Amino acid sequence: MEGGHKEQLGALTLCSALGGVLGIAAVIFGALVQWAGVMPDLEEYGRYVLLGGVVLYLVHLLEALCKSKTSKYLYWILSETEFASYVKELQSAKPEIRWTIQNYHYEERRTRDKDGKEKVERKRVNTHRAQAYYDIQGFLDETLSPEQTLAMFHLLYDGEHEDLEANKKKSRRIFLLCEMPLEYHAIDDQEEQRLFGRRETFFRENTRDTHQDKKSEHLISCHHKSHVMVILKEGTDDSRARPWWMSYWFYAICTVFLMSVPFRVFFFSQCAKIQWEVLKHFSHKQEELWTEDPKHSRAKRTDAASKAFRKVKREMPARTFSGKRAAWDEGPASMEDVGPPVTVPVGVPSYWKNRDLDKDFDEKINLSPDEREKMQQLLDVTFKNKATRDRKSDGMPTRLIATQVIRMEDSKMWRRFEQKRAELALKGRPKLMQEMPGSGPFKTSPNDETSLPSCLQEVTSDLNEAYLFHGSSPGGALGIGENGFDMSRVGSNVGTMFGAGAYMAEACSKSDEYATEDPSGLFAGKFALLLCRTLLGNMFYITESNIPRIEDALATGKFQCVLGDREAAVDTYREFVVFDDAQIYPEYVIIYTRSFA
Question: Which end of the chain, N or C, is less packed with Cβ atoms under 10 Å?
């Protein structure tokens, strides 16, 4: 699978399997020597060989059936619904940190063997043992919700088939192996120092003997399944929707007959693997007493799009401008420029696969190579070789290369977008983009170029509807495409130069400044852009950051977005800030790489 990776056999697995083979061979050889009279000179050693073989074989069984990843995956096989419930249980569970110390010393005992020779036996003697828990009072969970990655795997599977219709009759299944380690971080440096001090004090006060075994464990207040297998199958939600051989008991039979390694190799070849961190931040203070965001928050290492798809997140009140009184002159984007009501189209775009809005649908369509090439042309024509201080990467790329493009067809989100478009149409035609001061029409405006995506032609230009880019990570982009923008979370990664909203750009090179790569998993090393239908309506035009002025303008209720025209001011880019998620339909997810050639 593109971008994904497979589970691998470890050295311990191979050694265990080899030990099992040697063990059975030793059992057979020892039995022949002991009871069949083979090689009578070795008869007194036969039982030792037999016993050693039994031990090797039992170690092989113990490793394969109880300790191996395969046994854990096959023991916990979940459907999508069961997996979602399990992740939510993990998200709400309290983190626990436990310290354990075991004191011990060695005692020597002198004995004599049957020949009278003195032997010295050294034996470990355990003495004082102690255990303690760190006093966690508040925690914040940032474990990713299941819908995001499940959607990614569905999309990846679809992407392997150029003709999806031809595969509709087939049973399409994905076997997803999830490794779920616990990752805990102190809320800040002070908490980290306090944790370290408490741990060292505990170990020091309980050091009572010559030697100590010290252990610090991450636990959780629910049953933690470190390895689970999820069955993703189109049209059903059943953990039994898998081949007959993919079961723990068949694996056990294979193990008994020394066939566990071939089973594991084939099993791993049929499955995709992902590491799913259970990420929690903790403090000895209640969460409401925290004075800053977590030091190691995902928000600080991923973009706003990724944060928008957190299932369990801290409550952050959405920005509201109602009840405030404007205190300044509206300037060039005055409501006097609003014209008569606008006629808007009804129904889904003509190029969508799903056409009937009377039925609910939520489908992800991978674009054909020809359509993807047109999307590549759009990236090329909207790319501008201009970097700003927001670019955190190593240099300015020369081109963005699309590797996969997915269209999101979602009836629920489209109805909401269509309703908002109808509401804006009743308010009348706003001042159009080409009539605004500054840099001219949208870079993604409808045109006669057949080499560009046809979707550009199907926008309501009289409402300043346009296709705009939003930078993200692949996981974050798919999450937004699944659920839309969470306006209480967006903007925190890019700052609030023009207000706390969703930042959009007409130039892909500007949105690329905020895109981040997935560090691991399916889309490792790749970035993502959302190409969104965006209703801009009446735009408040400004060239410099002035938050009080922007808030006062928005408080009048006359503007639907902010146009920050830095292109006119310093020859960089224009950004569009939207504050209502209903004005944005995230239609396309573009997975891409950066070229520096």
Answer: C
